[in-house]
Structure formats: C-alpha cells, structure tokens
Amino acid sequence: MVAPAEAWPICSTMAAIAETPDWAALDPDFAAGKRAIAAGDWEAAIKALTNAGLRDARNADIQNYLGYAYRRLRQFGPAMRHYQQALMLNPRHRSAHEHLGEAYLVQGDLTKAEEHLTALERICLIPCDEYDDLRQAIAKYNKVAER
Fold this sequence. Notes:
0% strand
C-alpha cells in the first residue's frame, strides 16, 4: 500500500540545518543549499548543492541534502541515487539512512525502510534522533496500512 504523501512525516531533524555552524561555511554553495532547504526552496537547494558537489564529490552530507531536496519535489529516482551515494561515501551516515528509509516508506517498501532502521540501531550507540524519527515514521506507516 502506498499512502498519500501528506500522511508521512518528512523529517523532523532538517529544520535546524540552517542554524548549524559547521565547515559548510567554507563553501558558499553548500551554505546556500542548506539555507534553501531550511526555507523550503527545493529547486534553489538542488542548484546550489549540485554546484557544491562538483567541487566536493566525496561529501556524503551534500549527497544526503540533494536526496532530501529531490524527495521533497517527489522526484524519487534522483533522491534515491543521492541517498545511496551518500551511503557509499559514508555507510554510517545516520541522516542518509533515516531519509532513505522514509523515502522507501513513501514508495510503499516497508521491508527496505526497516533495513535502514536496523542499520541505525547498529550505528546509534546512544539514542539518536534519526533512529527515533524513522521508527516513528514506520509506526505511522503501519498504523495507516492497518486501516
């Protein structure tokens, strides 16, 4: 069963991304992409993050943010490719596991979503938001699927 997009929490941890000081300040396109995501401007985010990715092809965060922006546009093909690229670059990238799991739920693939929850359970040695968010999304998915 594939539920309507409105039924799924997109992600509760991305809202604070524009406020997070980090090394992204060194790349103006990466910083602009993060600001665009925080503002919900998915097209601008994709443009800026794609430019940043051209300069830093080994950055899992850029790939994860690109996946997120594409997913918000409901362009699942590019979203999945960017999430998978993020995980190829960093198999322990918690946010990419969470977002990829959520993307699988939106497409009706509970089994794949649960695989990413299991991965997060192994990665998060202490409680982490990514595990909690994906666990809650799966619980909501199951509740909707029971109807």
